[in-house]
Amino acid sequence: MKAWRFILAGLLLPGLVLAQIPAVSPLSKDQIGAIKAKNAANVELNGLILQTNAAAQAKDWPKTKELTVKLIAANSKLAAAYPDDASYPAAEPGYYQLLGTAHLNLGEYQAAIAAYEKCTGRAQVLCDGRKDSPELKKTMGIALTSEGNAWLKLGKSKEAMACYERAIPFASNPATAWFNLCATRYNMGDMDGAIVAADKAIALDPTKADAYFIKGSCLFGNATVDANGKTIIPPEAMVALQKYLELAPNGGHTDDVKQMLDYAGTAVKTTYQSKTQ
């Protein structure tokens, strides 16, 4: 009898558990209709996302621009309709970053800058609301760096440099961000600033050959002439130039580096292959 009672108790347990689950009220027709409407809108939005990504991967920039504008409009409509759904505002920065890329590749630099600024502005709102993420920060880094490139295309070095500086905290590759700043300062004639930025890039990525070239070139310009008329090249310049040859024996600045080293009368111990060979 004890065994029989045990089995009965076991069989009764599921019924007791189920009895604790509260009854679910059926959805009204309006609720069902709202869910269907949102699902249909999301299907349309996802279709636009797929088309836009395909156009961008094919580098069809006119089509990418057209589709991204539609994508932003559709996303904004859903964000207004469903203000409690955080996924729509979270997607905005990426869409504007892609729109900026389309404008940049079409040579529409002012429009690209405007799109990148919208990207970073919306991303900053999310960050301020503690809704940031690694992906969002990556998007901001790309947008700011690309905006700097657009400013350079317009011949605005100061504006480009400001964007590169803003990109550094968000860059997925800080060494590249520092190098962009280094190159811009070099082209502006700010040699001291270029050296500082080059050192930052090198510290983060010791294989950044062009950073050594810029650093070596800047320091080479600090050469002096002694009482005997002999040119004195800073040793650090020689080290940087030789490091460039070590890292990029067939690089685009190889001939320039060789000329500087030959002028300094320094024997280059690093083995490298000449472009003419």
What's the structural blueprint in terms of helices and strands?
Elements: H1 2-18, H2 29-57, H3 61-81, H4 87-105, H5 109-128, H6 134-153, H7 157-167, H8 174-188, H9 191-204, H10 209-220, E1 224-225, E2 231-232, H11 235-247, H12 254-263
Antiparallel strand pairs: 1-2
Q: H/E element string?
A: HHHHHHHHHHEEHH
Q: Name the CATH class of the largest domain.
A: Mainly Alpha
Beta-strand proportion? under 5%
For the secondary structure, the number of strands is: 2
Low-confidence stretches: 1-18, 266-277
Radius of gyration: 30 Å
Helix content: over 70%
- Class by SSE composition: mainly alpha
Gross morphology is elongated
In round numbers, the mean pLDDT is 84
Question: Judging by the overall fold, what is the CATH architecture of the largest domain?
Answer: Alpha Horseshoe
Question: How many structural domains?
Answer: 2
CATH topology-level name of the largest domain? Serine Threonine Protein Phosphatase 5, Tetratricopeptide repeat
Work out the oligomeric state of the chains in this entry: single chain
What name goes with the CATH superfamily of the largest domain?
Answer: Tetratricopeptide repeat domain
- What distance separates the N and C termini? 99 Å
Query: Can you list the strand order of the major beta sheet?
Result: 1-2
The count of helical stretches stands at: 12
Q: What about the largest sheet?
A: 2 strands, antiparallel
